[in-house]
Amino acid sequence: MNEGQDPSLAGTSEQRRGGLARDPFWLFILLVPPWLIFPNLGANILWQDEAETATLARRIVEYGYPLADDGRPPLDKHGHSLHAVTDQQLRGDGSYVDINEDGIWIWTSWFGNYLTAASLLAFDAVGFNDTIERQTIAARFPFALGAWVALAVMYVALLDMTGRRALSRVAVMLLALNVPYLLFARQCRSYPFLAMYTLVQVWGYVRMTREHRRGSALFVLGGLGSFYTFFPTMVGVTGGLGVHALLKHGVIRYDEAKGRLLTRLRHSVFLRYVVACMLVAGLTAPFFIYTRSWDRDYDDSGVPIKESWSRLVASLRAYLVHLHTGAWPFVLLVPIALSWAAARRRAVFAVLTLATGAAWLAVTAATMRGLHAEGLLEWSWRATDIADHFRVMLHNAPLGMLAAGLLLLAVFVFGLLALAAGAGVGESASRGRWWTGLAALACAVLFFAVMVAPASSGSFFILLGFFAAACAGTGLWIVRSSFASLRDAAWFDTDWKQITIVAGLAVVFSASALANHPFYRYLLGGAALFSLAAAACVLKLSGGRTWVGALVFAVVVGCELFQYGPFYVARRLVLEPRHQASIVRIQEEYLEQGDPEPTAKAHNEAYFAATEFGHLNANGYTWTMLYKNGRLDKFGMPVELEFPLLNLVRELRNDYEGPIEAVIRHLQAHARKDDLVTTVYEHFPLKYYTDLLVIRTRDLVPRVGPRLPDWIIAQHWDYRSGLPAGVRDKLRDAAFYEWVRLPEEPAAIQWDNIPEPAWHHFTTVKDRPLKLRFWRLREEAKVRAYKRQTESVRGDIQTVP
Question: Where are the domains of the chain?
Answer without folding.
Answer: 325-486+533-572, 585-648, 656-791
